[in-house]
Design a protein that fits this description.
alpha/beta; 2 domains; 7-stranded mixed β-sheet; 34% helix
């Protein structure tokens, strides 16, 4: 595996060409189509990132480059994730997961497709947490590396630009660790009327309703005044939450207080904190970039804003975020889509989630991270699609196998791409977890560890911790 540079392409389809519909719609009783698209469409930054690489718009996919004779006997899979930059915590375990997959007999011995055995090559690329860079490396994988399929992971800033390139260039793509609504709208679909099918793209993760099913049950178990401080930035995820979460909160009897659509990488949150304090907010929910929450939470502690229950999305998913906050992280709750406590197994080797997490800790000396499971599972999905095809270089056929795939077992649990809320979407459940002082055990013997405290959306996950107020 190596990162290989390449030339830039010259054609890109118009990402706004599909998914148009009625100007107004509703999710619950308070979300308009205009509001949702303002957040979910990826914003000007995402569309601008896509257009940087395109000098003209075309309808449909452009022809694939011809394969060299030396490439015809191998299957090339590209993998794009944010290994550096503001989102790098999402990718901490990705290289380990890729090497783990490549080391299995299921990959190392090649794949028999259509009566012929092909070697498998995986090329890893770094999006640098930049949508422009994500588009650029995706196009390099298509034009320079002749990728037969691209896997991409971790937030709309990486997944959406890569998925746009793949849809335009006719390359199958598997996305994960991105809310499905953000991914779907980023490709030009309407999450309020999710009938649009994208020919080359599928994804697995969860969406905004699952965040509600994970966070709100935890709120309900802590006695509060039901006033919710909402910290939603002016970016794809933040605006998506702003469009959807207030309706879910109100439906559960809560009063949301919006802290304002602040720009990413803001350094002073005094006015927002003052607003939350003036409204006596005892519940807190957010979806910022990790460094932004770090800054906010430290300033909140200094200025006396101490909500009784804090539930955070997009941050505190990984140990590196926790180390940056130290003791201030105690009893902050977040979502978990994978953990060593989940009852999941690999379709490649039969190893369990616990086996994989333990192998990571022994190999790296680092605390396990939930991104291992989703990265591993994405390669299971890719392999299954190729094995079901007759020609691995036929992008349309491989993509059609992705669209119709039902996997009963993967490292991220069962995945059914035919049954999701939108075509090509497979939902995974999320558990409610809290960061707490560690205790003796293979996965919790750290200064702070993640404990499962609520399984409302993931009933198969065992609870191993007690839900407690973030600030008593």
């Amino acid at each position: 595996m190596a990162e290989v540079g390449g030339s830039r392409g010259s054609r890109l389809g118009d990402p706004t060409r599909s998914g148009r519909g009625d100007e107004e719609g509703a999710v619950g009783s308070a979300i308009s189509r205009r509001q949702l698209f303002r957040g979910l469409g990826g914003g000007a930054a995402l569309l601008g990132a896509a257009r940087v690489l395109g000098s003209s718009a075309v309808a449909g996919a452009s022809p694939r480059p011809s394969l060299k004779a030396s490439e015809a006997g191998k299957i090339v899979i590209g993998f794009v994730s944010p290994q550096t930059g503001a989102l790098a915590d999402f990718a901490t375990s990705n290289n380990f997961a890729v090497k783990r997959v490549v080391g299995t007999a299921a990959f190392s011995k090649g794949w028999k497709v259509g009566g012929k055995t092909y070697a498998v090559e995986i090329i890893v690329k770094d999006s640098q947490s930049d949508p422009n860079r994500a588009s650029e490396v995706a196009r390099d994988l298509v034009l320079s590396n002749h990728a037969d399929l691209i896997i991409t992971s971790s937030t709309p800033e990486t997944d959406n630009p890569v998925a746009l390139i793949c849809e335009t260039e006719g390359v199958p793509c598997v996305s994960t660790v991105v809310p499905w609504e953000s991914w779907y709208a980023g490709l030009g679909g309407n999450p309020l009327k999710p009938t649009q099918r994208f020919e080359y793209n599928v994804m697995f993760f969860f969406g905004l309703p699952q965040f509600g099913k994970t966070f709100i049950p935890m709120w309900e178990r802590i006695k509060t005044n039901k006033v919710v401080a909402e910290m939603f930035p002016n970016d794809a995820d933040g605006n998506a939450f702003r469009a959807a979460f207030p309706a879910m909160a109100k439906a559960a009897g809560y009063k949301p207080i919006d802290g304002g659509a602040y720009p990413d990488l803001t350094t002073n949150y005094t006015s927002m904190i003052s607003d939350f304090k003036s409204h006596d907010c005892e519940v807190y929910v957010n979806v910022p970039l990790p460094p932004d929450f770090n800054t906010f939470w430290k300033q909140a502690a200094q200025q006396g804003f101490k909500p009784k229950i804090a539930t955070v999305a997009k941050v505190l998913l990984f140990p590196a975020d926790v180390k940056a906050l130290g003791p201030l992280v105690n009893n902050i709750a977040t979502d978990s889509w994978w953990s060593p406590f989940a009852p999941y197994k690999s379709s490649l080797t039969g190893e369990t989630a616990a086996d994989l997490a333990l192998a990571y800790q022994r190999k790296t000396g680092q605390q396990w991270t939930q991104a291992i499971g989703s990265t591993y599972a994405a390669f299971e999905v890719a392999r299954s699609a190729f094995l079901a095809s007759s020609d691995p270089h036929d992008g349309k056929e491989v993509a059609s196998k992705l669209q119709s795939m039902k996997l009963h077992e993967t490292m991220n649990g069962p995945l059914d791409f035919t049954k999701g809320p939108a075509p090509g979407v497979a939902l995974v459940p999320a558990a409610g977890v809290q960061w707490k002082h560690g205790k003796k055990g293979p996965f919790t013997d750290f200064p702070f560890a993640m404990f499962v405290v609520d399984n409302s959306d993931a009933p198969s996950w065992p609870i191993n911790g007690k839900l407690e107020p973030t600030n008593p």
